[in-house]
Amino acid sequence: MNGITDSSKRWIGIDGGGTKTSCVIGDRNGHILGASLTASSNIHSNSHHHVKERLLHLIIDVMQKTDVSYDQIEVIQMCLSGCDRESDKHTVRQFFQGTEFEKKISIANDAIAALYAGTAGAPGIVLIAGTGSIAYGLSKDENNPVRIGGWGYLLGDEGSGYHIGQMALKSVLKSFDGRGSNTLLTTMLMEHFEIQNIQEIIPIIYGDQFTRTLIGSLAEIVMKADESGDTVAKNILKQAVLEKCLIVKAAINQMDEEEMSIVLHGGLFSNDRYKKMFCIQLNSEMNTKLNIINPDIPPVAGAYILALKQSNIPISQKVKNQLREHYQPAADRC
Amino acid sequence: MNGITDSSKRWIGIDGGGTKTSCVIGDRNGHILGASLTASSNIHSNSHHHVKERLLHLIIDVMQKTDVSYDQIEVIQMCLSGCDRESDKHTVRQFFQGTEFEKKISIANDAIAALYAGTAGAPGIVLIAGTGSIAYGLSKDENNPVRIGGWGYLLGDEGSGYHIGQMALKSVLKSFDGRGSNTLLTTMLMEHFEIQNIQEIIPIIYGDQFTRTLIGSLAEIVMKADESGDTVAKNILKQAVLEKCLIVKAAINQMDEEEMSIVLHGGLFSNDRYKKMFCIQLNSEMNTKLNIINPDIPPVAGAYILALKQSNIPISQKVKNQLREHYQPAADRC
């Protein structure tokens, strides 16, 4: 095989998000040899021309950095946001037609990268709580992935940062109208937006180009208000957590396993308060034995794990340890 | 006074909405002598140049139709959507600077036209339930109008057609996910949108240029599902009605009157089912004596009533009868 030994073979993992796209290259043992980064690769929010350029450049860049030849590449596993349907995958596959990469490309949704970063390639459910909200589950047979939620800010996103932020805004306006309780959130949001009265929030929200992100970022303020004992904030978080549990329960029901790994992913789970409330509520509602996982490696490493799986390489404890070690700076291991 | 007798004096009323602007001209006794119509005059959703042209043309058109001279015009009362703040009113006033109309212009929000179409110039609350949702109240002293709700589709609009349509969409998607009850709404919405599976609704909703109107129009389907005994639809309407009652109660509390006229306005109230549910709920919750009014004249006639009021002309029973007669075709009076 062109003088390529097992130890010189390479696997590439790509995690494509809404704002950035990460790439790593590694060997069969979990050694990450190089990494590269570019802008968003979502084909629904960028021109196809740009996404094609970015992905090609990303792969060539990581190969050049690590001095890897085309022949050494076994699999290029792309896990891309916005790549849900067969037609989306076909679009991305077309980008590589006629290139040396054509036959090495494998395409999946970015949720799998986040899942495998937590389970190291084992079945489970990844629960995403960022600006949006979705659960994505893979059973043992890996066919028929389960998707719950993820219907976007107008029709879904229950339990997301957007949902929490929107409930906060509605609450302060209801309070202003005299049809809702007083809440600390009013002064906190006025301070946050540097406004003198709460109505001034209207042109800010409707006038912002990135309304979804702006509203999603307010979840942090709701956490602080709850911590200060505000009842309105507490009820908002309670409702968000209940909605999030509904999503997981629906996913678990569809998968029908006796034990289940639940991988937590997304900005909202980096808030300890929200994570704790969620875990307590979920455990209290479920009969299934749950193994709740906070990944210690990033989704791009999950994409790389999937790349190894495509070559039927078992994800041994050794591989997992290698990956973990790569992402934990030496200082942390003292 | 240039030979202008009381009986030759004229008053103009204009009701400017988001899609069309109506105009009438009448005498001091409630005789409507002519009418004219043009497109939207909302200064926030049209170029100022267009609004200026439309309003000027509208007035000149109604005057020409009725052979009325500048000298005969006493007041031109404009009730315009999107004219909330003093700065908005100033903008519209500028359109008429240097014209013969300059000193005859009076500007108010379009909610007052809808209110006066119901109360014939008396105090009360107008409750608007169309795509959006707002309550607007005027007390006896007519100062400090009360506004509750109306915070738009992202932050408010509780109890509106949009709110009902959005709850319907969320419900069918939750049902699809297995985290909500089965509902007739699923097949009804699939038939409505001519789709084979409910997920196809996502690109339709997010891809539509007029998402708010599209979602608002689904309220009609929820009414039908409720009529067929669907529990999910019933709960959606119940929740919408409760939110709508909260809005009225907050308005009533701020106005502190012993008796209150409540004028119902907007597409949602033309649905008897919704109107009945709302009236029963509101009466059951309130101690204040309520006089619920379904206007029998259009808002533009309310604007004309306000024009007469600006000249201190009492809105006598004779005036009211004249207006009512004008808007009820002879056949209805058999």
TrEMBL record, chains A, B:
Q: Which residues cross the membrane?
A: none
Q: Which SUPFAM superfamilies match?
A: Actin-like ATPase domain (SSF53067)
Q: Which domain of life is it from?
A: Bacteria
UniProt xrefs under InterPro entries: ATPase_BadF, ATPase_NBD, Euk-type_GlcNAc_Kinase
The ATPase BadF/BadG/BcrA/BcrD type domain is annotated at: 12-306
Cite the Pfam families for this sequence: BcrAD_BadFG
Please identify the protein, giving its name as recorded: ATPase BadF/BadG/BcrA/BcrD type domain-containing protein
Q: Which organism is it from?
A: Jeotgalibacillus alimentarius
Q: What lineage is this protein's organism placed in? A: Bacteria, Bacillati, Bacillota, Bacilli, Bacillales
